[in-house]
Input
Amino acid sequence: MKAITYDAYGTTGILKLVERPEPKVAPGEVLVRVKAAGVNPVDWKLAAGYLDPVFEVRYPVVPGWDVAGVVEAVGPDTHEFAVGDEVFGYVRKEWVELGTYAEFVSAPVRTLAHKPRALSFEQAAGVPLAGLTAYQSLTRLNVSAGETVVIHAAAGGTGSLGVQTAVALGARVIGTAGEHNHDFLRGLGAEPVTYGDGMADRIRALAPEGVDAALDFHGGPGAVETLRSVVRQQDRVLTIADPEAAAKGVPFLWVRPDTADLAHLAALADAGKLTVDIAHALPLAEAERAWELSASGRTRGKIVLTV
Output
């Protein structure tokens, strides 16, 4: 099979399109013929060595955790899916080695769910990591109908899915973004505010009595402190972008694969309550370009590789 690989940590020029053996399929796994693989910042951060203290890495690495595709084969004693099923998932395994930037990936069934019918393979590949991050952040803070939640960096891949998921829960959403993304956020159901100096005052203008919860999907100097200043209860702020947050009393969330959560997101998509804005869909051979676009931080929506 064709796959993207790298043989050592690095930042540029490390990705190669090569021929690799098809993965073996263990009990409790299925072999997925990849139609599209989602690109996330964690992919190039792993390759740069930033997460070396956290993850076991075995070379050569096929990067990528997000996938949408079709079940090609099932492992022994694996009954959750059948050959021909369309699936999507967050295929994070115990170590970094055999990822989704390939024609095939072996995936534990705990990382997959049936693909939403309403989304294309490209759109579905953009959901798992970002969508699970958003949904698990909202559930960690017990956001419910009638509450007001602030989503910091609401126009990004995770933020835009967070806005839609929160709206589907019945929450009022205030989303921070640059002014050029305000109409986009209104279209998702959020009330936009511009980030930067004075952001807390702009949030208070919309919610004078404070907000119920706040999600930091971007980080940056003072982000957590600003969000804590606008919530009614200090324990209802969460970040995915500030690893030092625990020292400030703010939970740091690292998304986990979860079939039930993926199925919930699929149901929202099929009900017309969640969609994915695809910024770039590039062929597998242009993975390096996809990483450059992701690292630029200027892309709205998701980047995917088509296989």
Summary: The CA atoms of residues 28 and 79 lie 8 Å apart. The chain is about 25% helix and 25% strand. The longest helix spans residues 128-140. The chain has a mean pLDDT of 96.
